[in-house]
């Protein structure tokens, strides 16, 4: 086996040797995406931690900030925007509230509902963290040319639609 093979290629070569009857070519894409996802998540979390946040907490603050003034959403809406259960969302909101980054109040539209809103401190934090996050993502894409990044985005958009577009 050549030393120039990456981790996935080495696994594919071993499988090709042991199971030549099975086409392992899909592993080239899926395996590399899986490994890349782990590396990217690790690099993204460095920025979140620098701001005292976990990945999920960053997501909550970002979802509130994207809502626009007055920077608030219902907890169920936040769960939908961050793709977590309402139970997991409650834990995130509790921690952010203890940190003075969000508040909870009864909804004026529906007295039974709750609303989560960014505090001024929460807005300052997410604005700073988001700017650094975008610089970090730009750095992570630096290994690709602009054309490659555009092409990869188009391919991933089409592929993701196969899983997420309602039929």
Any key phrases for this structure?
elongated; 7 helices; single chain; 3 strands; mainly alpha; 7% strand; three-stranded antiparallel sheet; Arc Repressor Mutant, subunit A; 167 residues
CATH class of the largest domain: Mainly Alpha
Pick out the low-confidence regions: none
Main sheet characteristics: 3 strands, antiparallel
List the total number of helices: 7
The CATH architecture of the largest domain is Orthogonal Bundle
CATH superfamily of the largest domain: Winged helix-like DNA-binding domain superfamily/Winged helix DNA-binding domain
Which sequence of SSEs, written as H and E, runs from N to C? Answer: HHHEHHEEHH
Q: How many distinct domains?
A: 2
General form: elongated
* Share of helix, binned: 55-70%
What is the distance, rounded to the nearest whole angstrom, between the alpha carbons of the first and last residues? Answer: 44 Å
Oligomer: single chain
Strand order of the largest sheet: 1-3-2
CATH topology of the largest domain: Arc Repressor Mutant, subunit A
Tally the beta strands: 3
Strand content: 5-15%
The helix-and-strand class reads mainly alpha
């Amino acid at each position: 086996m050549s030393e120039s093979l990456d981790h996935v290629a080495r696994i594919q070569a071993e499988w090709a040797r042991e199971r030549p009857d099975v086409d392992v070519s899909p592993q080239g894409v899926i395996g590399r995406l899986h490994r890349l996802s782990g590396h990217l998540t690790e690099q993204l979390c460095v920025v979140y931690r620098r701001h005292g946040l976990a990945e999920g907490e960053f997501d909550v603050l970002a979802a509130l900030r994207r809502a626009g003034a007055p920077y608030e959403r219902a907890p169920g809406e936040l769960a939908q925007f961050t793709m977590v259960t309402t139970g997991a969302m409650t834990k995130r909101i509790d921690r952010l509230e203890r940190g003075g980054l969000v508040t909870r109040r009864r909804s004026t539209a529906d007295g039974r509902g709750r609303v989560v809103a960014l505090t001024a401190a929460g807005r300052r934090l997410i604005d700073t963290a988001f700017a650094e996050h975008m610089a970090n993502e730009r750095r992570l894409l630096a290994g690709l040319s602009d054309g490659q990044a555009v092409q990869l985005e188009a391919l991933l958009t089409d592929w993701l639609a196969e899983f997420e577009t309602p039929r």
